[in-house]
Hints:
Blueprint: H1 2-27, H2 32-58, H3 62-87, H4 93-103, H5 105-114, E1 121-129, E2 136-140, H6 151-161, E3 167-171, H7 182-199, E4 203-206, H8 213-220, E5 226-227, E6 231-237, E7 240-246, H9 253-263, E8 291-295, E9 312-315, H10 339-342, E10 345-349, E11 352-356, E12 377-385
Parallel strand pairs: 1-12, 2-3, 3-4, 4-5, 7-8, 8-9, 9-11
Antiparallel strand pairs: 2-12, 6-7, 10-11
Amino acid sequence: MLLNYYCVAAAVVVGAVSGILAVRWLRGGLSSGRVLGRGAVVGFVGTVVLGVGGLAITGVDGITLIHVAYVVGTVGVPLAGGIVLVWARPRPRVVTTACVIALTAIPVGVYATHVEPFWLKVDAVELAVEGVDEPIRIGVLADLQTTAIGDYERDAVERLLGFGPDIVVLPGDLYQFDADLLGERAPQFTQLIERIVDEVPLVYLVSGNTDTVAGLRRITAGTGARVLDNEIDTFELGGITVSIGGTTLFGDDAAARRMAARLAGDEPAGGGQTGDRNAGDGQAEDGRAGVRILVGHKPDAIELVRATPVDLLVSGHTHGGQVSLPFFGPPLTLSNVPRHVAAGGLAELNGTPIYVSTGVGRERGNAPQLRLGVRPSIGIIDLVSAGSSDG
């Protein structure tokens, strides 16, 4: 909260100083080109200096600099333009045009901060899988990344349940707050999980950047939902054997690799730690391989099955970049997978189909609370017979 107030104050200072100086330069007869150039330099230097001040609040964190720059761009820049439009006389046409363009940052900022982050969409995809006779519907509820459960989060769950999924997976970042608040806030998250389990008994979670295995287990205790800590759960669904493996972020890498090898059928049963209910090797009773799904918070979990593909990897983490530029995509994804994959949706890497959710929530902490060009989403993945789809 302190950082938010600081960013707004910094933006007002940078905008006011830039605008007042530009007015003085125009009144002094300076050419429009030099006025615009000097104004840009003052704005840039001011943003950098005040960004350093932001780091004094949060510590070294590049996200803080992005936060300062975003607020300066959507508050400070239009403020400078407004000051020039009101007070500068004479005002060359090119300067007037630049100021009007600067003012367009206001609606962009309002939309990116207050509209798109809550404009939830349903991302429905279909994937043909060998051995699937009857369709299997997987609901994906990634990156709620919230400090508390409110109407928005409850609405996301209800919309997901409205599609009647057979399985629901939550691939990390369920909550984002300090660990000492877990005892106070866990009950509302438990109620949300209970609501899902009431409709869909097969509910699986893995940990991400902002939650922990211990925290998720506290939230899900007694609900019937299962937190997979480098474990596999195998069950029958519509006559098909389904094995779901969950990998833990910041966990035991060796255990994660053993789990992934077993899931992919590259290691015999009993070769690693699992949490299987039955059919631990993921085989159907007739020896036919069942459906194998890997759930990991980061799409980088694809590296665990690089040598031996599985039927599907479900992940989140990237938020689709949270900002996406036309003809380029997301500039920042915090992932090593290709940008077009991290941007969200269904793709394929190393022979494994990979679904990356753009997430329900948004990055909190020191980050600016925005989405631009990347709407939040719930995912609906239909696994269908390979013979019933052109995919």
